[in-house]
Amino acid sequence: MKNFRNDIKINDLAQPFLEQIIKQMTTVFDPEIELDIYNLGLIYEINIDENGHCYFLMTFTDTGCGCEETMPYEISEKLKAIDGINSVKVETTYSPVWKMTRISRYGRIALGISPRGGK
Asked: Which helix (H) or strand (E) holds 92?
């Protein structure tokens, strides 16, 4: 898919769903930063198997985020709304630790940060 982030690991079966997944994930916002999780760079991995099960690996900007309990449920519900995704497991990791360099160019502009990302 054109313009898909290259820092999210995906498997071949997830490819046909990417546009819909991105559309859904850009509606899930980090309540403290007020940017969606796709552009914020919180998504690490998306895999879908032949039974329509989606494995979704993500992180948060910091441990103890107030949305750790609610956001995985919201993500799961939005992914299950996509035709062909039958079940979802959202897993959280802090390795590797999230860094501001994961914010997309769009996200940087929206937050008023240099779009070059310090490069």
From this structure: strand 87-92
